[in-house]
TrEMBL record:
Listed name of the protein: Nuclear transport factor 2 family protein
Species the sequence originates in: Hyphococcus aureus
Residue intervals of the SnoaL-like domain: 7-124
Pfam families membership: SnoaL_2
Length: 132
């Protein structure tokens, strides 16, 4: 995955094109983050369809590096509440590690993301968030 391909991935993510996003993933991806496990196109679509009912989430790429096995991104994840999302709703949907957010509130986090690649596709993802 090169920078241009990743920028296409980010554009599709920012546009909520979940099928287009999943096309960048290996046939059997292993996504695990903040207590969420995603292994299929449907699980990715279900997760983000729910989350994006409450927030507008965008990726802003600041730094990018890649090899045949890894794409590493440093960027800002901006989350803007479009509908109140409280802790109880998050917990009920298996997202207890996520932060509640109110409509109109904005959270920006610096995120370091490692995409582990297999045959040019994303096999797994690891990330760390640092408040900015």
């Amino acid at each position: 995955m090169n920078r241009e391909q990743y920028e296409d991935y980010a554009r599709k993510f920012n546009a909520r094109d979940y099928d287009g996003v999943f096309d960048f993933y290996d046939e059997n991806p292993e996504l695990s983050f903040f207590g969420i496990e995603i292994r299929t196109r449907k699980e990715l679509t279900d997760f983000y369809s729910f989350l994006h009912t409450y927030v507008k989430e965008t990726i802003r790429i600041e730094k990018f590096a890649s090899s045949d096995e890894l794409a590493a991104v440093e960027g800002i994840i901006r989350v803007e509440g479009i509908k109140d999302l409280d802790a109880a709703t998050l917990e009920a949907n298996g997202m207890g590690a996520f932060f509640p957010i109110r409509k109109g509130e904005v959270q920006e986090m610096r995120q370091y993301i490692h995409y582990h690649l297999h045959n040019g596709k994303i096999k797994s993802v690891g990330c760390a968030i640092v408040p900015s």
